[in-house]
Amino acid sequence: MPGGGPPGRAGLVLLLMAAAPWSGARPRLGAPGSQPCPSVVLVACDSLDGRLTFYPGNQTVDLPFINFMKRYGTVFLNAYTNSPICCPSRAAMWSGLFTHLTESWNNFKGLDPGYVTWMDLMEKHGYHTQKYGKLDYTSGHHSISNRVEAWTRDVDFLLRQEGRPMVNLTGDRKHVRVMEADWRNTDKAVNWIKNEAINLTQPFVLYLGLNLPHPYPSPYAGENFGSSTFLTSPYWLEKVTYEAIKIPKWSSLSEMHPVDYYSSYTKNCTGEFTKQEVRNIRAFYYAMCAETDAMLGEVISALRDTRLLKKTIVIFTADHGELAMEHRQFYKMSMYEGSSHVPLLVMGPGIKKQQQIPNVVSLVDIYPTMLDIARIPVPQNLSGYSLIPLLHGKAENAVSPEGHRPSWVLSEFHGCNVNSSMYMLRTGTWKYITYSDGYSVLPQLFDLTADPDELTNIAVKFPAMVHSLDRILRSIVNYPKVSSSVQEYNKRQFISWKQSLGQNYSNVIANLRWHQDWLKEPKKYENAIDKWL
């Protein structure tokens, strides 16, 4: 409720009663007919681990509105980001295309400003459209550090690029609105529903982008800061069940996969952490997820209050997850579940209730799903597939208009904090991760049924499975060629940036986020870059 706190228990009871109109027959979404197209609300947050939306992850924190969506809609148990970092992930969601097709290589390189998104097409076909909050899918954003760290990942040096992860408790038990910017955008969306959407004669699509539960800036960490502070208030911390928090197991530094070691080091996580520190980081992160859930609740409550809920499809997702000290890392930029697994919940007219879908899906599926809802023909060139057949409870092998949904999803990463392009193929019980050209760095294979925490790489033990999954991956993307293109792009961009700085180059590069390490031996690091160039 604008100006006040989240809807709370009483509001939730009213919501449960108000959801009753969906209990009747399900109108078809995909086929034209007399039924008007439903409106759509998409709430996309930043860095929410999808495993918190179902058992056992949901035991750690109270998320009443995510639970409400599960009760009156569908939860996807295996939804993934197509690139575990903000801008490339969002570029995939707004374009319906894999990262290597849009060349959204890092947080600086996303879609071109004029790119036609699903929202543009829905507007062209008669939908009223409205956006609030974080978009972050076009090129040219994020800090200088972010892009320079990505461009120089092949340089032979190792520098800490983030502040050490830490927690910060603010306010008291009455302090609800911790992330004020997100609450302001939520208020705008709520007011728009109550004052504008209610008077529309055509269907609408509303997008709300939240920054939570992304960690907050750590001002001591230099230029544009790293974001390594998990910040919340006692109000939200009380929603967390401390006893249920799992302390992740870590490999010793010497046993880590070489790319994991690089990530852990650049994220400033290779130092000593007590169990209490790790537990607190995870607890504060879960509390930030609870605050995010409350903002989703505001939007759902506004739809209920205006009687729009029964004719609106609500979708909740995130751009990627958050490791929260799993695998001795925080942040994302990893193919481990904490980073790559996203929440995806859908409810509304025509959506099957209390349904849990095990199929692997990913954020490129949002684009064709939106077009399907709006009854707009789905282009053949998309990487994603409409979720509508699954949401209607159709058989797993249901044929969507554009053909069979594949039994795999692809995720790839080319940005900072990782010293190689990496690719993930997720299918059945398997997760296959390969790097660079497929030969120079050891691949990883995990059986997620037997090893959900991904602690045992069984690639050497199962060479035939590695070969089989690698063949599927190469049929989707010529990944050695893509990795090579990214290396060339990084070098080209760096040279251009260096030339633009002229005499200021040495001073500027020394004072990026890695300044604490760089300034100890500036000549050594400049020489390493010259050697790379």
Automatic annotation (TrEMBL):
Reported cofactor(s): Ca(2+)
Gene3D superfamilies registered for this protein in UniProt: Alkaline Phosphatase, subunit A
Gene: Arsk
Annotated ranges, domain Sulfatase N-terminal: 38-374
Known role: Catalyzes the hydrolysis of pseudosubstrates such as p-nitrocatechol sulfate and p-nitrophenyl sulfate. Catalyzes the hydrolysis of the 2-sulfate groups of the 2-O-sulfo-D-glucuronate residues of chondroitin sulfate, heparin and heparitin sulfate. Acts selectively on 2-sulfoglucuronate and lacks activity against 2-sulfoiduronate.
Name under which the protein is recorded: Arylsulfatase K
GO molecular function: arylsulfatase activity; glucuronate-2-sulfatase activity; metal ion binding
Family statement: Belongs to the sulfatase family.
Pfam families in the cross-refs: Sulfatase (PF00884)
